[in-house]
């Protein structure tokens, strides 16, 4: 009964699916994918009318193309947090999520706020003068700009390494755009920066490092799933992004900026 109810909700148009399991907007590289074997699939389910729906079976592995279409979103989120490959394939290939830009801006705002707060804590000036308040507001905008530049450097490092690898799955403009969306979406872990600051504790610096590791792990999983790469090449791409990002930070520090 639970599965039947989930399929009925799915057939009603939830999660961006049309009635026959096809969606022309999912024209991203590869289209639908089997979450188990990563093979392309023409549909996720078939609608036999009158509430009769059946999940499509992959012709390659003989398993359901996407078992997550009948799962609750909370279960999908938990599987994504655990960095399960199947959950990432479901999110990246078989759903319509168009919050990449908004999520990126919000994550950058979180990071900028954290840096701005640390900068204010290190400042001993408590003068309530308007000029001081405007200077503090400018500091926040400056931190947002620095965080944006560092994020850009990280992404450029990843794309450069993958471009030099001459990958067959990364040749067209749409391939690069799809990978960019996957990387931005997999950076959702940065949202944990705000709770880490609000619930300030002696272990906050350790929590921030763990959040950084989690975000990098999610980014590497997004690259692996999107391009179907080996773990070695994926780690090399992430390392290239980190090197360029840290180089940007070093450049800012040499310029005398507090980052």
From TrEMBL:
The keyword Transmembrane helix applies. InterPro entries: Arv1 (IPR007290). It is a multi-pass membrane protein. Its main location: endoplasmic reticulum. The chain crosses the membrane at residues 140-164, 176-199, 233-252. It comes from the Eukaryota. It comes from Chelydra serpentina (Snapping turtle). GO terms for biological process: intracellular sterol transport; regulation of plasma membrane sterol distribution; sphingolipid metabolic process; sterol metabolic process. The keyword Transmembrane helix applies. Keywords: Endoplasmic reticulum, Lipid metabolism, Lipid transport, Membrane, Transmembrane, Transmembrane helix, Transport. Belongs to the ARV1 family. This is Protein ARV. Residues 1-24 are annotated as: Disordered. GO terms for cellular component: cortical endoplasmic reticulum; endoplasmic reticulum membrane; Golgi apparatus. It is found in: Endoplasmic reticulum membrane. Mediator of sterol homeostasis involved in sterol uptake, trafficking and distribution into membranes.
């Amino acid at each position: 009964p639970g599965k039947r109810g989930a399929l009925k909700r799915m057939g009603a148009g939830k999660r961006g699916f049309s009635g026959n399991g096809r969606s022309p907007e999912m024209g991203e590289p590869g289209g639908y994918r089997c979450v188990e074997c990563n093979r392309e699939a023409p549909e996720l389910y078939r609608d036999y009318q009158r509430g009769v729906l059946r999940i499509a079976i992959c012709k390659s592995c003989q398993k359901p193309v996407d078992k997550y279409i009948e799962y609750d979103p909370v279960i999908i989120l938990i599987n994504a947090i655990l960095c399960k490959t199947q959950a990432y394939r479901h999110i990246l290939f078989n759903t319509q999520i168009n919050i990449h830009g908004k999520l990126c801006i919000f994550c950058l705002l979180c990071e900028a706020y954290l840096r701005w707060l640390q900068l204010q804590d290190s400042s001993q000036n408590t003068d309530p003068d308007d000029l001081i308040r405007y200077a503090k507001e400018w500091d926040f905008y400056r931190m947002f700009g620095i965080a944006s530049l560092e994020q850009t450097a990280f992404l450029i490092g990843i794309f450069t390494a993958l471009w030099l690898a001459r990958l067959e799955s990364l040749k067209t403009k749409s391939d690069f755009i799809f990978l960019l969306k996957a990387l931005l979406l997999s950076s959702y872990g940065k949202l944990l920066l705000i709770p880490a600051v609000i619930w300030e504790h002696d272990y906050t610096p350790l929590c921030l490092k763990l959040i950084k590791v989690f975000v990098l792990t999610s980014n590497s999983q997004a690259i692996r799933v999107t391009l179907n790469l080996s773990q070695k090449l994926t780690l090399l791409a992430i390392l290239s992004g980190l090197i360029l990002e840290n180089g940007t930070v070093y450049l800012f520090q040499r310029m005398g900026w507090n980052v």
